[in-house]
Amino acid sequence: IQLVMSTEGIEENPWLWEKIIRKSNFQILNSERHSGDWGTDRILVGGEFNDQILGSDIYRDLVRWKGDGILNALWTETLLTEWCLEKGLQTSDAEHWSNLFSQHIKNARCPIETTADWWWWINFSCKWASVYFRIISYARNTRTINFDYLENYYFQFYGTKEFQKWSMVNRDQKHQGTFLSYKFHARNLVADFLGDDKYKSKIKRGSLWNLLSYKRGAEIIDSDYNFEMSANLDSWYNRDNSFI
Q1: Cα separations (Å) of 197 from 13, 28, 179, 189, 191?
Q2: CA 9, CA 3: separation in Å to the nearest integer?
Q3: Which of 25, 73, 135, 186 is the most exposed place for a label (fewest CB within 10 A)?
Q4: Could you tell me where the beta strands, DSSP code E, fall in 53-189?
Q5: Cα(112)–Cα(38) distance, rounded to whole angstroms?
């Protein structure tokens, strides 16, 4: 087992580092050097889709905007429009997106009741493919990336059908009405494993951007696994797709 990580990973969970990883026999690789190193000589297991099954980073901005009560507030199209306006959209664009999202939410395969539900569903249903491929898009040798590779050598821990079903049923396990409680159930599981309650009070903090923000990845990966490093997005975008 090789662990590909950086100092940001240690800061993300210093208790796990100190109690388990530092004392293990795992080989530790610097993610700065291996973030684009995907080959068939190893099986890669990542931690993507955690946000998609547990909620959305947008919860933080929503709470700053309306306070903690917004997460459990019943969603409305009016509230969605107000949010779009708050983020700087013109009135016509805000109404367009709120109508589009509202139609999408109404076609969900599970109940969408609260504002937190609404943004979890948008994140879960609309960002899945992007998150699946976002690390792959930085592969240095793109010739190794194809259907066989993704089926046999590339796995994201939270991407299973079981996790997806859990996410659709157990929405009460994602937060307790505040941003500070976001992912509380997952944090409790980690804290119980470590035998230390400190992790239960940890606030969500992203670290992936530290690894990828200054690197250049493919702008498009097509269905034949061709990597387009510079693409005219107008030639790919389908304006008639309602996303519903």
Answers
A1: 12, 26, 19, 10, 5
A2: 11
A3: 25
A4: 154-156
A5: 38
DSSP classification of residue 191: H
Structure tokens given for 127: 């960002």
Structure tokens at 27: 């080989």
The per-residue pLDDT string of the chain (244 residues; one tens digit each, 9 = 90 and over) reads 899 888 888 888 888 899 999 999 999 988 877 767 778 888 999 999 999 999 998 999 999 999 989 999 999 999 999 999 999 999 999 999 999 899 889 889 899 999 999 999 999 999 999 999 988 888 888 888 999 999 999 999 999 999 999 999 998 899 999 988 999 999 999 999 999 888 888 776 666 766 676 678 888 898 899 998 888 878 877 777 766 5
Long-range contacts, 26-30 (Cβ 8 Å, 24+):
26/1, 26/2, 27/1, 27/2, 27/3, 28/2, 28/3, 29/2, 29/3, 29/4, 29/5, 30/4, 30/5, 30/6
Q: Classify each residue of 74-113 as buried b or exposed e, where b means 16 or more C-beta atoms within 10 Å of its C-beta.
A: ebeeebbbebbeeeebeeeebbebbeebbebbeeeeeebe
State which H helix or E strand residue 5 sits in. strand 2-5
Cα 81 to Cα 125: distance, rounded to the nearest angstrom? 20
CA quadruple 207, 146, 233, 83: dihedral sign: negative
Tokens 């009405």 belong to 177
